[in-house]
Amino acid sequence: MTCSPNLLKILGIRLAKEITKTNISAEERIFQAILVQALEDAMTTSAFKKETYWKHDAHKWFLSNCEDFKNVCWSANMDPEFIRGEYLKLIREKKIKFTKMQNSWINYRELYKLHRAAQSKEERREIKNLIVKLKFN
Asked: Which helix (H) or strand (E) holds 39?
């Protein structure tokens, strides 16, 4: 598994050790790559919209503890509780956090979803006004 040294340093010894195991099958390595990519996405400080959405999606995925997350962990030969626990530790240590701009993009996306689901012109107009306010703040 190829990871940036900076990522391994941030992850800490226990998680980095799990990710850099050498004697694993090709299938396990693929699922480890999925976990590493999700971790990299969750740690980005980029203020670009697309990267922020990837970060938010990865963040929700780790926190959800959903079946998909558990299956990816088990397929990578890693304990989902360990991975999730290490992720929560990264949050507590403020190694994973959202910038003001990232939070703005996340709010924008949520408002846009509401706008698309709105049932009336009035409801859409109200949401559109919130979006415009968000853009100019």
From this structure: helix 26-43
> To the nearest 10°, the Cα dihedral for 45, 51, 57, 59?
-10
For the record, the structure tokens of 134 come out as 């968000």
Q: Residue 65, SS3?
A: coil
Whole-number Å distance between alpha carbons of 33 and 108: 30
CA distance 116 to 97: 28
Q: What is the pLDDT of residues 84-100, one digit of tens each?
A: 999 999 999 999 999 99
CA distances from 100 to 45, 47, 48, 137 (A): 10, 9, 12, 11
